[in-house]
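Before the break, one more example. Copy the sequence into your notebook; we will annotate it together after we see the structure.
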Amino acid sequence: MMTHAKTTGNAKKVAQLQAVMAEVLSEALRRGFFGTAAVELSVQDGTIQNIRRKVERIEK
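Here is what the structure looks like once it is written out:
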């Protein structure tokens, strides 16, 4: 029996999530960045539906 965590759709979303997290982390860890960065997942019945990235910068 296949679990939701190992479905093809989740595998694609997990790969996408890893890429998004790497991009957000790279952007936030640059010198001169002030603000917040977040990655949000929407999950339904064990399946990733949406991935949202939020980067808010503070102007100094």
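The longest strand covers residues 47-57. The beta strands are 35-44, 47-57. Try to locate both features in your own notes.
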